[in-house]
Amino acid sequence: MAWFFVEIRYVQEKYGDVRPRHREFLTKLADDGVVAVAGPLADGTGGVTLYQAEDETALLDIINQDPYYLEGAVAERTIRGFNPVIGAWVPA
């Protein structure tokens, strides 16, 4: 399994209405162990989520189902692979 940081920038006029469905979507993924952490940026322009997926293709299959994406609330999306080496949840 691989880790990916996904940063999105919101379409400001749309994201507020979609937020409850987006959070339900991410909560299920967190319960399933796919999302490690997620939340909005402090400046309110977007958010960041840390996902675990088999590869980037599998990640795209997941994140393309996000209500923010499906309902046009994402202005920009950046995906970056991530290799965790230190942390409370990183195996030694």
Please state the average pLDDT score: 96
Counted up, domains total: 1
Shape-level CATH architecture: 2-Layer Sandwich
How many whole angstroms does the radius of gyration measure? 13 Å
Largest sheet: 4 strands, antiparallel
Number of strands: 4
Query: What proportion of the residues form beta strands (DSSP E)?
Result: 25-35%
Question: What is the N-to-C succession of helices and strands?
Answer: EHEEHHE
Helical residues, percent: 25-40%
Class by helix and strand content? alpha+beta
CATH class (first level) name: Alpha Beta
The separation of the N and C termini measures: 16 Å
Low-confidence stretches are: none
CATH superfamily: Dimeric alpha+beta barrel
Shape label:
globular
Give the strand line-up of the largest sheet: 2-3-1-4
Counting DSSP H or I runs of 4 or more residues, the number of helices is 3
Annotated CATH topology = Alpha-Beta Plaits
